[in-house]
Amino acid sequence: MHRKSLTRLVVSVSAIAVIAVALAMVVAAAAGSGQRNGANATLASRSAAADNTLVIAISHDVETLDSDFSHYQLANEVNYNTQDQYFIYGIKSTSGGFSAEDVTQIKPKSITSWRLGPNGLSIVLNVRKGNKFCHTGNPVTAADYIYYFNRGIQTKSGYLFNIDGAYVKSWKKLGTYSFKLTFKKPSPFFFYLFRDQSQAPIDSVELKKHATSSDAWATTWKAKHDAGSGPYCVSSWNPGTEMDLTANPAYNGPGKPFFKNVVLKVIPNSSERALLLKKGSVDLAQGLTLDQLNSLRSTRGVKILDIPSRTQYEVGLNSKIAPFTSRLVRQALSYAVPYQTIRKSVFSGHALTPRGAVANRGQMFDSHTWPYSYSLAKAKALLAKGGHPNGFSFTLDITAGDAVSQDLAILMRSSLKKIGVKMTINPQTAAIFAQQLNTKKHQAWLRDVLWYVNDPAYVGNSFYRCDALLNWTNYCNKAVDKTIDTMLKLWRPSQRSAKARAASRMQRLINADAPTLILAEPDLQVATRSNVSGFVAAPDEETLYNYLKRAG
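The chain above was modelled as a monomer; its predicted structure follows.
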């Protein structure tokens, strides 16, 4: 796939210190993981020609098997495939050679039925009977869901982010296979968030066996061991080399796996990953460059899926650091973005030109709220009006090694130079970059942002509200906050028109304030062998292994 390791917006980057601990745990797993069988096979012996084995070339190792601390896309993907989430979206066909999840349909997964309480302040959830955890055979019961909530409150990481994001106030076991959640207020995001990779039961009986006085929630053990009931189980893991998954014979949810085995092979060099795909040694290759993807389009036996996305590449401008304290300066730079050049030269046309804080493909997107187009004359006039007729200098921080961000930064530097603005590009390690996002120390930053929850209220509440955890630009407009509050109250289907009007108002306000420069909205490009079918495009852009098949 073409996408760097994404820090998903459903996960708190405030837990960066915890990420480092989790990464250390994974490295420590090399000394001896209980899920390594000591028989790590070579890539040649795990040939993609084996009909029941899917081989995926990945760029780096899986971060952790503890979805509470899973912050990067590959780890999220593995955890999604090894866990059995509460809900799943419906699936619809497309004309692009793949199916897509339909976010307008909420379907049962590990939760078979539910009953919403009066005024949306509670919900009773019924667990699918007969589910078993993969490695132990322990039955999945309501107690495992309750354990999840208790663990999330204590570990204060990814679980807690979603608990808080869904306004969950309390939880209570009603019976062996039912439990009740109470909300602080009606929760417009509950169903969206609880189909997320981390929202699934975990084997509480097994985790309690590995708890210690200094690690009451078995975080050290869980980082190296899956304890889920999803379609796949981790059968072996040689960190830095390979992770093997095996279909869970006890899984009886939607999407029974076709492939009995999935091999995730770490191939750090993207050229080598592309070559292995070209030769047919692997079935999918992730993390390819745009040039490599374009080259593979004409390769016999390979196909590239172009999947519509709501990802936006953005330059965040810190509203509390001069000169970006000036709204006029931020507007000026918005007119200096070479939108069409970026779309054509960086993304080879496989992107949409952005038109606002809500992505083009986002629910309730309103194109009429976007005032900007490429105009250096307007940019210069606004700079002069904002007190900078001769321009200014600033530093843009990017993640080192991210080729797309580097290309975008170079284009922006060239364009801004034409209006007298000198931009210095400062590559940083991923850890430093994330830490400064969390502490809001960047003067300006560039990265991709994936809006996987397709709701304008979620976009505003997560990123643009004055006190939002992910408000990395220090942006604050009380009128925007008031509009977000209005949208959050409009959660009933009958209130959709009123919510759309509020969403338009929010977009108009944010776009006029220009807290970010929105550069492009690229497609997700997935590179597979031609005989691999069944790809289902998910809004969080994770590959769902259990739907994939081999044709012929």
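Residues 2-49 have pLDDT under 50 and may be disordered.
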